[in-house]
Amino acid sequence: MSTSGVGRRGFLGYVGTAVAGAAAGVGGATLAGSSGRAEEPAAAPDTSSWAGRTIDPHGPHQPGVAATPAHVTELVALDLLPGTDRDALGRLMRVWTGDVEALTQGRPAPGDTAPWLATANADLTITVGAGPGAFGPRRLGAPPPGFGEVPPMRHDRLQERWNGGDLVLQVAGRDATTVAHAVRRLVADAAPFATLRWRQQGSWNGTGPQGQPVTGRNLFGQVDGSANPRPGTPLFDQTVWIPDGPWAGGTTLVVRRIRMDLDTWDELTRDEQEQSVGRRLDDGAPLSGGDELDDVDLRARSGGRLVVARDAHARRSHPGLNGGRRIFRKGANYVLDTDAGVESGLIFQSFQADLLDQFVPIQQTLDELDSLNEWTTAIGSATFAVLPGFEPGSWLGQSLLG
User: Fold this and answer.
1) Of 73, 113, 207, 266, which residue is 20 to 30 A from 282 by alpha carbon distance?
2) Residue 148's Cα: distance from chain center in Å?
3) Active-site amino acid positions
4) Which residues on neighbouring strands pair with residue 346, listed in sequence order?
5) Which residues sit opposite 199 in a β-bridge?
6) pLDDT digits over 235-282, tens only?
7) Would you say 122 and 70 are in contact if contact means Cβ atoms under 8 Å apart?
8) Does this model's pTM top 0.90?
């Protein structure tokens, strides 16, 4: 991130933040000393949550959708070769099923040329989806109800190199080496059926300093993901999973590559930054009060004025302003050197049962008016239907291709 564009107001805003943090640290040390606990050894952090897990790939849903955001996420889109018909697509899904069952359990995939790179306890999940080009009578048949492409948005500046795709792999894990190895294996096994279209990699920190799970922050410093429906709840199930038909247990995915203008964002004061999103920067709590996970009070006023501005992101994306519609979102931060300089942003993933009735209306509301539009630009967009899960002895997409 360049600091050359930090204006005086931005500088003072961040000084204020830094001073507050430093004061808290000094205060903490003083209190510890006065209680006689300063010489006591610090409590050992709970590292139990730092150890990775081996995630079972089986079940009614592909587990990567609801899994806690991983440290590293790579999204890979592929284009099907012209000769890849329904039977060929079925063969690819059988091959990928074997890869998924092996790699996520820390075993080398069949024919793996680097078996020592398969790692257990890597939090590895592999999620497979199909884009618009994979549907039709020669291939997957009809898409799930409510699936389609995102219509053009006024603020979009889409680049073809980040758009589209007939298939998608979402590979997520705790380290980039394991993730990269899995991607290489899956893409190599797809070579007779499909070619690489684009790859996007990002990172996320969903672990607090004491090992506790936290929501995580985007590169603006915002606690990004507040008020998401929580996996395992009825609200999550209703929001995300396709309820019936051959796609039951699947979902739909929108991938948006969002460029973030960090230099001009840094010119704002902390108050201006918080007003634009409608949440506090330090803990993600709504400006209307409460904690991070409390609902935003859209009616709250102070001095006769709305506490959460009419164009604040939290208001414009709120279910109350969108007919009760919700999505489940995940993010991965990225920084990329380009010919034009350093590009920073967010790989935004939105999961919902009905893409056209959930994601699209919310996105249109934001496109119409959202303070963050001044500092964010979508430069890539792709939609996919995520296949239902599979059980031992079956394979990905069997309910659709078998």
Assistant:
1) 73
2) 20
3) 224
4) 258, 333
5) 76
6) 999 999 999 999 999 999 999 999 999 999 999 999 999 999 999 999
7) no
8) no
